[in-house]
UniProtKB/TrEMBL annotation:
Residues passing through the membrane, by range: 248-267
One GO cellular component term noted in the UniProt record for this chain: plasma membrane
Assigned EC number: 7.1.1.8
Highest taxon listed in the record's lineage: Bacteria
Protein name: Cytochrome bc1 complex cytochrome c subunit
Membrane topology of this protein: Multi-pass membrane protein
Record's comment on post-translational modification: Binds 2 heme c groups covalently per subunit.
């Protein structure tokens, strides 16, 4: 009868090798697991679930139950797909009150936000979980409290090159075709400025990091913030729209005042009655 002990030892050795391999893989996964990854019951998954519930109640009627986009009974698009737009686009649209929209139109105007900051973050997390997209920027990306004069000057050059065609050289906005307009930037926060450049809301082009570097975006924001803090020491700013508003002021107020004074003077001059002359036959 053959000895079974070597066979048993061979099976035990194989089991030990397999166990050691599994233990090594498990340890490696634990060490290399990204810091942002969480379990199914972690805080991030709870935030995503909260965002999914908020989306189903307040957004799905236009954008579809799975954010795939929606249409009405006539086939007209009621809301575009949000898959891949990223958390930054959601944060911008919802925090500025543009979404949820009361009604569709050529332009969605800003208004007070409907959702709280926590709810906006949950909605952004849910949309970001559907597909990769631009993330909400970190605060240091748009913090310009310590911006230098050199950065502001460079930001002004970039703004005049890329933005003045729509937003005016003073950042006060301007009209666009088909009932659209570029909004004024005087009340826009640095965070939303960065997100607008990153995502290109509505008719605005996307200024990705390949087109406009993060430090260039920060310089543009620093310049706009300097415009927001700028005063009008000479008197009325007239919207800082340049010669158009100044010319209107000159014609309507200046020339108009002169015409009114001339009419008033003419009304005060006494009129001389002329007697008809009599001729003799």
């Amino acid at each position: 009868m053959r000895d079974a002990r070597p066979l048993r030892r061979g099976r035990a050795a194989k089991a030990l090798v397999i166990g050691a391999a599994l233990l090594t893989v498990g340890l490696a996964y634990a060490v290399l697991l990204p810091g942002g990854a969480v379990g199914a019951d972690g805080p991030q998954s709870q935030q995503i679930e909260e965002g999914r519930r908020l989306f189903a109640v307040g957004c799905s009627s236009c954008h579809g139950l799975q954010a795939e986009g929606g249409t009405n009974g006539e086939g007209r698009v009621t809301g575009p797909s949000l898959i891949g737009v990223g958390a930054a686009a959601v944060d911008f649209q919802v925090s500025t009150g543009r979404m949820p929209a009361a009604q569709t139109g050529a332009q969605l105007p800003p208004k007070p936000p409907v959702y709280s900051e926590q709810e906006i973050a949950a909605l952004a997390a849910y949309i970001a979980s559907l597909a990769p997209g631009p993330a909400v920027p970190a605060e240091q990306a748009y913090d310009v409290s310590q911006a230098t004069q050199q950065e502001i000057v460079r930001g002004g050059e970039l703004f005049r090159t890329n933005c003045t065609a729509c937003h005016n050289f003073s950042g006060r906005g301007g009209a666009l075709p088909n009932g659209r307009y570029a909004p004024s930037l005087m009340g826009t926060t640095p965070r939303n400025m960065y997100q607008a450049m990153l995502t290109g809301p509505q008719q605005m082009p996307v200024f990705s990091d390949a087109v406009l570097l993060p430090e260039d975006k920060r310089a543009v924001i620093a310049y706009i913030v300097s415009l927001q803090q700028q005063h009008d020491p000479g008197g009325f700013g007239l919207g800082r729209l340049g010669p158009v508003s100044e010319g209107l002021w000159g014609w309507l107020i200046g020339i108009g005042s002169l015409v009114a004074v001339a009419v008033w003077i003419g009304a005060k001059v006494p009129r001389v009655a002329h007697k008809p002359s009599h001729t003799k036959d």
